[in-house]
Write a structure and sequence with these properties.
By secondary structure, the protein is an alpha/beta fold. It has helices at residues 21-28, 67-79, 98-107, 120-128, 159-165, 178-187, 217-223, 241-244, 263-275, 295-302, 315-327, 345-351, 367-375, 395-402, 423-430, 442-452, 454-460, 471-479, 493-504; strands spanning 5-10, 32-35, 52-55, 83-88, 111-115, 141-145, 168-172, 195-200, 208-213, 230-234, 256-259, 279-282, 287-289, 309-312, 339-342, 383-385, 388-389, 406-408, 411-416, 436-439, 465-468. The protein has four domains: 5-118, Tetrapyrrole methylase, N-terminal domain (Cobalt-precorrin-4 Transmethylase, domain 1, 3-Layer(aba) Sandwich), CATH 3.40.1010; 122-248, Tetrapyrrole methylase, C-terminal domain (Methyltransferase, Cobalt-precorrin-4 Transmethylase, Domain 2, 2-Layer Sandwich), CATH 3.30.950; 256-286 and 417-504, 3-Layer(aba) Sandwich (Rossmann fold), CATH 3.40.50.10090; 289-415, Rossmann fold (3-Layer(aba) Sandwich), CATH 3.40.50.10090. It has 19 helices and 21 strands. Helix 16 (442-452) crosses helix 17 and helix 16 (442-452) packs parallel to helix 18 (471-479). Bound molecules: S-adenosyl-L-homocysteine.
């Protein structure tokens, strides 16, 4: 039987953007993903839907797994012929027991690839604004496990050399042993005034930092109940953070914001909010699905050569249209005989990947613009195909019909209200990690109420700041029992982002 293959992948320190391109690619074709506590679960979204996802923290229902169990799980899955993505926090070879897993694979004759990752020491330091080395401050850095200490008889850390020999020292897993670690460094000659920073959940929206010196950090951490997972950075470079911090001073840092726009429109808004440091949860209240029956569209596609014009008024229409072209077994050549009109530059751009450059892009990017352009042509007897959304206005078919054209307007896709809130967003709402909810049209409010039920929506949004893009949306919010806290003066996503950021940064 064919043997599988194992990819040992560094997931990076937490921010899902910090996995490597190769790492994400390997997840995308895995049959099985075995992941750790420290690997961000959002990365699992890159796995194929058929993939088996196994949390290595709980093998066989037991809460604590042994390393040998994980090793044999990897071996067994690969022997079944599976492609296994083993996803580990940070880098697999930095205190990640990746070496042991590879040894087990090698012993079983299973082929593997190692995809390095941004280790927590590097990632958390960067997001804390602490350069681990600096020309004027230090020339060396050491990564050390804080898990063992000198009270153990068989300590392997040479404290004397470490204390004086390395400029910056980064301890992993050192929070519990902080009193012993700092004591050892001071006893072996490091100045008690050396700056120290603890970085917990580095690179994540929950990032927490505690600063002090070798002399006082252990006591400070005890008082603040500072917990793992955190790295401890010791060295003069820590004092550069004051000038260089960037991540945790962004105006929306630490704020959970729910975006209710349709999935295909949420991206830009989410990006604006993330740039200001928010942790964004997308909860689309509209989703686009194929029509109940595609028969009419398919029939038109099969007779495409008899049409003079093909009109698209959105990138969505283009996407759904071409997916039918593919399903019926054709390709872009089916469009050879007809001219193509795209309502605006976005729709036009969405045609390019299919090899189609539109013949006509009206100057006015609306249905009215399309009608005006066709009004200047002889349309009598011309056959026009207009694949549309189920709720589209009938302006185009009507006006072109009046010009004497024969218009066929099959439904290419429908707007429907999803039946649930995505799990990640729901969990954040229930755990009160959402600080602000944003509504960018009345239908986003109405649909959310339809998905959750009005009472449940009101209960879940208790204490959550409500932002509405304009007066109409704000009114709908109030009608549905929500109090509106933020309303930008101009009704754009940029102004809405600014208004939210101002709201949370009032003096
Ligand atoms: N292979 C991992 C380290 C695993 S050991 C890597 O390369 O990063 C686990 C320790 O890593 C934790 O106890 C903590 O010290 C550190 N760690 C992992 N992720 C972290 C994060 N996001 N912020 C701070 N420390 C982190």
């Amino acid at each position: 039987m064919k043997k599988g293959h194992v990819y040992l992948i560094g997931a990076g320190p937490g921010d899902p953007g910090l996995i490597t391109v190769r790492g994400r690619e390997c997840i995308s074709f895995a049959d099985v993903v075995v992941y750790d506590y420290l690997a961000n679960e959002q990365l699992l979204e890159s796995a194929p839907s058929r993939a088996e996802l196994i949390y290595a923290g709980k093998i066989g229902g037991a809460h604590n797994h042994e390393q040998w169990q994980i090793n044999s799980l990897l071996v067994d899955k690969a022997l079944e012929g599976k492609i296994v993505a083993r996803l580990k926090g940070g880098d697999p070879f930095i205190f990640g027991r990746g070496g042991e897993e590879c040894e087990a694979l090698a012993a079983a004759g299973i082929s593997f690839e190692i995809v390095p990752g941004v280790t927590a020491g590097i990632g958390a330091a960067a997001y804390a604004g602490i350069p681990l080395t600096h020309r004027n401050v230090t020339t060396s850095v050491a990564f050390v496990t804080g898990h063992e200490h000198q009270e153990k008889d068989d300590t392997e850390i040479d404290w004397e050399r470490l204390s004086l020999g390395s400029g910056t020292i980064v301890f992993y897993m050192g929070i519990k042993n902080l009193p012993q670690i700092t004591r050892s460094l001071i006893d072996h000659g490091r100045s008690p005034d050396t700056p120290v920073a603890l970085v917990r959940w580095g690179t994540r929206p929950e990032q927490q930092i505690l600063e002090g010196t070798l002399a006082n950090i252990a006591e400070k951490a005890r008082k603040a109940l500072f917990k793992a997972p955190a790295i401890t950075i010791v060295g003069e470079v820590v004092s550069l953070r004051e000038k260089l911090r960037w991540f945790d001073i962004r105006p929306l840092f630490g704020k959970g914001i729910l975006v209710t726009r349709a999935a295909d429109q949420a991206g830009e808004f989410s990006r604006l909010l993330s740039e200001k440091g928010a942790s964004v949860f997308e909860c689309p209240t509209i989703s686009l699905v194929p029509p109940e029956s595609s028969a009419e569209l398919d029939r038109a596609i099969l007779e495409l050569s008899s049409f003079d014009w093909l009109v698209f008024t959105s990138a969505n229409a283009v996407g759904f249209f071409f997916s039918r072209i593919e399903t019926v077994g054709l390709d872009a050549r089916a469009l050879a005989g007809c001219r193509v009109c795209a309502v605006g530059p976005k729709t036009a751009a969405s045609l390019l990947p299919y090899g189609i450059r539109p013949d006509l892009i009206p100057a006015d990017y609306k249905a009215e613009g399309v009608v005006a352009e066709f009004g200047r042509m002889e349309m009598k007897g011309k056959r026009v195909l207009f694949p549309k959304a189920d709720k589209a206005r009938d302006l185009i078919p009507k006006a072109l019909g009046e010009m004497g054209a024969e218009v066929t307007a099959p439904v290419a896709y429908r707007n429907v209200i999803p039946d649930r809130v995505p799990e990640r967003a729901m969990l954040a709402l229930e755990e009160q990690r959402i600080h602000c909810i944003t509504f960018t049209s009345s239908s986003t409010v109405e649909n959310l109420a339809a998905i959750l039920g009005e009472n449940r929506m009101i209960r879940l949004l208790e204490g959550v700041v409500v932002a509405a893009i304009g007066p109409v949306t704000a009114n709908t919010c109030r009608e549905l029992g929500l109090k509106v806290d933020i309303e930008p003066k101009e009704y754009t996503l940029e102004k809405m982002t600014d208004a939210i950021s101002d709201f949370f940064n009032l003096p």
